[in-house]
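Exercise 7. Given the encoded structure of a 225-residue chain, write a plausible sequence.
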């Protein structure tokens, strides 16, 4: 709230004029201006070109469909009905039900947007699913809260989370006498991993993982639930 200096006022006005000028040019020439997938720079291109990149991703993954109507109310009602149903059958406690219940005021329809990968040939786009206020987000957050510690505990010897844990793993490998001049290192990347994961199979693998480690419930919630 303190008054700006004359130089700061002049600078602010210049920047405001630049922003307005950029907005006019974007609108006039039908351009898209957005942040890139990696780095602190911007992508600019035509709307037609950007839409083509999105369509290419749709065809490549076959993981998305364009909705003809807004499914938000139906999704929210289904989530609330499901939570009330499993609560009525005493599969979860009331406080767990409350924690996972969507907030009708704050909830929004999840939506898709794209970040251009300017570091790759042809500048493809990465799909970003914004689900931060989706009706299912509270369920996701709670399940992550109760299952992640189990995973961290059971898989700590085989999980590398950062450079430091990689160095520690290599030291253990060396102490066992397994690190030799013929040792091969392999890295791999899965294209469109998160859009290609089969959901039912992922759930089955999760249940199998918990069963193998002797869990029939997690925080009182049966695995079937």
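Solution.
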């Amino acid at each position: 709230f303190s008054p700006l200096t004359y130089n700061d006022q002049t600078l602010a006005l210049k920047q405001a004029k630049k922003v307005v000028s950029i907005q006019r040019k974007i609108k006039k020439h039908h351009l898209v201006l957005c942040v890139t997938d990696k780095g602190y720079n911007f992508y600019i291109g035509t709307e037609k070109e950007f839409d083509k990149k999105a369509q290419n991703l749709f065809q490549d993954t076959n993981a998305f469909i364009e909705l003809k109507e807004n499914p938000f109310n139906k999704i929210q009602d289904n989530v609330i009905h499901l939570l009330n149903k499993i609560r009525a059958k005493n599969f979860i406690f009331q406080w767990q039900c409350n924690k996972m219940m969507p907030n009708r005021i704050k909830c929004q329809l999840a939506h898709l947007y794209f970040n251009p990968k300017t570091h790759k040939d042809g500048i493809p786009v990465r799909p970003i699913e914004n689900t931060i206020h989706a009706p299912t987000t509270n369920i996701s957050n709670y399940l992550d809260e109760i299952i992640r510690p189990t995973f961290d505990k059971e898989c700590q010897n085989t999980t590398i989370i950062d450079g430091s844990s990689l160095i520690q793993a290599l030291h253990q490998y060396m102490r066992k006498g397994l690190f030799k001049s013929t040792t091969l290192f392999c890295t791999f990347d899965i294209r469109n991993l998160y859009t290609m994961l089969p959901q039912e199979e992922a759930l089955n693998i999760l249940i199998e993982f918990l069963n193998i480690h002797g869990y029939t419930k997690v925080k009182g919630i049966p695995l079937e639930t």
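Remark. The mean pLDDT is 92. Students should compare their own answers with the one above.
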